[in-house]
Amino acid sequence: MRATTIHAPFDMRVEEVPDPRIQRPTDAVLRVLRACVCGSDLWAYRGESAREPGQRIGHEFLGVVEETGDEVVGIERGDLVVAPFMWSDGVCDYCADGLTTSCEHGGFWGSGGSDGGQGEAVRVPFADATLVKLPADAASDDRLLSALLTLSDVMGTGHHAAIGAGVGKGTTVAVVGDGAVGLCGVLAAHRLGAERIIALGRHQARTDLALRFGATDVVAERGEAAEAAVRELTKGQGAHAVIEAVGTEQSMRTAVNITRDGGAIGFVGVPHGSGTGIDLGVMFNRNIALRGGVAPVRTYIPQLLPDVLDGTIDPSPVFDLTVGLDGVPDGYRAMDERTALKVLVTP
Amino acid sequence: MRATTIHAPFDMRVEEVPDPRIQRPTDAVLRVLRACVCGSDLWAYRGESAREPGQRIGHEFLGVVEETGDEVVGIERGDLVVAPFMWSDGVCDYCADGLTTSCEHGGFWGSGGSDGGQGEAVRVPFADATLVKLPADAASDDRLLSALLTLSDVMGTGHHAAIGAGVGKGTTVAVVGDGAVGLCGVLAAHRLGAERIIALGRHQARTDLALRFGATDVVAERGEAAEAAVRELTKGQGAHAVIEAVGTEQSMRTAVNITRDGGAIGFVGVPHGSGTGIDLGVMFNRNIALRGGVAPVRTYIPQLLPDVLDGTIDPSPVFDLTVGLDGVPDGYRAMDERTALKVLVTP
After folding, report:
1. What ipTM describes this predicted complex?
2. How far lies A327's CA from each of A95, B133, B243, in Å?
3. Inter-chain touch A293–B283, beta carbons under 8 Å
4. Which residues of B are less than 8 Å from A284 in CB distance?
5. Which of A338, B78, B123, B259 could form a disulfide with B263 if both were Cys (CB 3.0 to 4.6 A apart)?
6. Does residue A253 contact residue A227 with C-beta atoms inside 8 Å?
7. Confidence band, pLDDT 50/70/90 cuts, at residue A103
8. CB distance from B95 to chain A under 8 Å?
């Protein structure tokens, strides 16, 4: 089959790789219908996260089950399924707690020896626990397929950030980061009943989407000017719940400074310097909590799925560029240059 | 009157200062019956927190109301009352939320121009909101008075740490710090239904007290050996809830490394380098939350008071040395040299 590989920073290729096959009785093989490129893939693309030359990549995908191992009972050939961005065994202590990202036998698509999502097919370990079945008729609905694909990562991650930040009915929320995760954070906060949602961002296409997703205010300033603008919107106090969806020192510093005393930051931006942006003295004096991390989206898919299916939430507009498998390298370039928000891949 | 003042690092004096008097109609003047020395006072004592020469000190006290301003309605001359370690107005947005430490008109005893608790009397701003009435007959019960005094800080702070760490029924808790706050954290965790409480500490008098307060295990090792010991006690996973009651880089690093994936650190040690002990990458990968800060003990006093009055919890054993007002400098020395755990002052 053909799949995307990364050979060096900025060197993405689409090439022939071995066909996936059942290796363990709990495996399934899935034909990818839709995949996409994640903002976090850009850390590898830019060389800021190390990869072995030729390693697979892509951790967001949905598709049709092609083959199952002997012990797979909940899923069969022909099922339409979505995969979370990590696989998990479903039975360890952490999976029992819903923290599937800490699964004792879990792993990340594209890590050494495993398939990535940006390819024609994927071998899925622990298929019963990892995959979630979708209604078969969704396969013929392009918009719905795109919306469902976001459950593999960005929608669940935005939801995790909102939960971590303590979003609830009547809260004021601020969202740092106008990428797909930040925008899904807006959507998640709206779904959870936030009264006011302040989106920080300077790219109008993105902030327009934030408004469409439920943001009530947009702050286009950056740094201290952004902090002042958020305070002005919040009686000088800041937001109860702040979503940090970038992961840099500056984004975390902004997040700390715009959180209301007693509030919380839900952080889901993969840390790339953001630890330095934490002023623990400020957080101590103001009782600001920090919660989040890698999102256990497998646990969230069943919670969010009904709302995606009935249209209560529609994250599909985060995709603004569609490419075939051969177009994946162009897709990375477009996201790296921020000419695309999020790239859909139709292998 | 006579009160404790700090003139330079290690230079504590007890000297004549102006008698406190009602300055605003919401003030009260309180005659101090019991005060004490806090571990956090040692930061000033050692010169690690700056103080003006001659500044008052002491933020934990209870006593009898001597005089009230015209607008004070809930408290009258002769009432036995306990003060939390900060005053608060009781009406601002933060006080309404219970976050009295962020009160818009709040302040800290001993800060410039205010009285400190380690003296004969104190002017109390916003007396109705700040002070909490105690049963009059407690004044004749030495043990109970000591137990009630801990509500001014250490017991409420230990409770705040336990709440921040997410202690609940059946949880496994680890406590970093064997000072009075850490020990009160053990007591708070026990009160909140923790199943297992691991106290980290090397001083047997303190760990014995931890066991008396409800600890089920003691880890005497430090650093990586302590982390390994906690993991051994917890199926290799760490504790659901970790109380960080020190505030140094090492204590925070230990706290992060002994927290179970998906767990939380309740941090109440005043940060003195602890920010550097936070590895955000680890916290991200393992979904470890950080919650805490300066404890809104005013909110906790009414919650904890019934349990202290009926003996459900008895934090009084944290005091292991009693001095008169003239003995306060000796008390600081004893705590600095760790020959005393916590010093009670009877002015």
Report:
1. 0.96
2. 36, 72, 51
3. yes
4. 267, 270-271, 292-294
5. B259
6. no
7. very high
8. no
User: Does the beta-carbon distance from A293 to B286 stay under 8 Å?
Assistant: yes
Q: Is the pLDDT of residue A248 over 90?
A: yes
The confidence score (pLDDT) of residue B273 equals 87
Q: What percent of chain A has pLDDT over 90?
A: 97
**Token representation of residue A326:** 């051969």
Interface check for A48 against chain B (CB to CB < 8 A): the answer is: no
Residue B172, classed as helix, strand or coil, is strand
Residues of A in contact with B285 (CB under 8 A): 293-294
Percent of residues, chain A, with pLDDT higher than 70: 100
Q: Domains of chain B by range and CATH?
A: 2-153+296-346 (3.90.180.10), 158-292 (3.40.50.720)
- Give the per-residue pLDDT at B274: 87
SS3 A297: helix
Which residue among A264, A281, A294 places its CB closest to the CB of B287? Answer: A294
Place B112 in a pLDDT band, splitting at 50, 70 and 90.
confident
Alpha-carbon distance values, B127 to A121, A154, B27, B59, B155 (Å): 70, 51, 5, 15, 21
Segments in chain B forming alpha helices (H): 41-45, 93-96, 127-130, 142-149, 154-164, 180-191, 204-213, 223-233, 249-257, 280-286, 297-309, 328-336
User: Between chains, do B287 and A278 touch, taking CB under 8 Å as contact?
Assistant: no
In this structure, what token pair is assigned to residue B345? 């002052």
